[in-house]
Amino acid sequence: MQTPRASPSTPVVIVGAGPTGLATALELARQGFAACIFDMTEGPNTESRGTGLQARTLELLDLYGVTELILARAHRVRAFIVYQSGEDIGRIDFTLAPSRFGGSPALPQAITEAILRDALAEAGVTVEYGVQVTAVEQHDGGCTVRAIGPDRQSFEISADWVVGADGARSPVRTMLDLPFDGVSYPEVWGLMDATVDWAWPPDACVPVPGAISEPTWRSAFRIHRRQVVAYRNGRILLAGDAAHIHTPAGAQGLNTGIQDGINLGWKLALVAGGAADAALLDTYEGERKPIAADVLHLTEVLARNPAAMLGDGSLLPEQLAARVGQLLVNYRDGPLAQSSPRKGGLVAGDRLPDVAIGGVPLYHRLRAGGVMVAVLGAQTDVSALAAEWGNRVPIWHVDRDDADGVLAKALGLPEGAVVIRPDAYLGVVVEGSAPAAAIDAWLKDALHLKSTAQAASPL
Ligand SMILES: Cc1cc2nc3c(=O)[nH]c(=O)nc-3n(C[C@H](O)[C@H](O)[C@H](O)COP(=O)(O)OP(=O)(O)OC[C@H]3O[C@@H](n4cnc5c(N)ncnc54)[C@H](O)[C@@H]3O)c2cc1C
Question: Which residues line ligand 1 (CB under 6 A)?
Answer without folding.
Answer: 15-21, 38-41, 45, 49-52, 109, 132-133, 165-167, 171, 191, 240-241, 248, 251-255, 257
